[in-house]
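Weekly puzzle thread! Below is a chain. First person to post its structure in token form gets bragging rights.
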Amino acid sequence: MKDTDLQLTIEVNPNQKGVLIVGKTNLPEGTKIGTSLEKNGKTIAQNFDVIVDNGMFYAPYGVNEDKVDKVLISCYKNSFWQNESVLKQLDFIQTPMWITDDLSEMFEYSINMQERLERLFKEKVDYPKNHQLIGKIEDIKDNSSQGIKRLSANIIYNNEPSKEDLDNDLKFLSFKIWEENGRNFKALKLKCFVKGTSSVFKSATLAPKGDWGKATSESSISDFELKI
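Winning reply:
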């Protein structure tokens, strides 16, 4: 058998039950993999009995994606983790990630979920890069109930802006409010006013399918739609 470079592709897919880690790799058939989830530097869930089967491995977790900061994938090259056949084949897998700890060689691969969530959120709202904010957030109200975090905010303008500027403002503000308020709301409603008036001239809702009422404690960013 010839030396070969490690191939490893990881996806973290949200679903109704939490997240599913899906790995594609050229690690030997039957290789034992460890997976774990971290929040604020602490392990909140783990599974050290994930097995490579036909070049794939799967690890489901009943944890919502926005409650995870980091996903860790690990593999140990020792007889406690691997059978003799796998150990022999692992000797031919080359990667700079292999390191030696007190017991054996191992590698660890991590995914920064907060960076991933930020990219996903910006995709969901079609975040406008280099946008110059026009409106001003007057106040943010917490309308949470039954463990479902919902926020609403009034946005004040000196004059009613153009449709393009207003749409970009609301997209920009959706991200700003998410970023500055724990990154964990399940629904957001924005109401736009001209300064000194009480009539709403435009509103926007960011929620599952764009519907404030469809928000649940298990809703994820993947469910979000921004309706203006």
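Puzzle host: Confirmed. Bonus trivia for everyone else. The CA atoms of residues 56 and 149 lie 36 Å apart.
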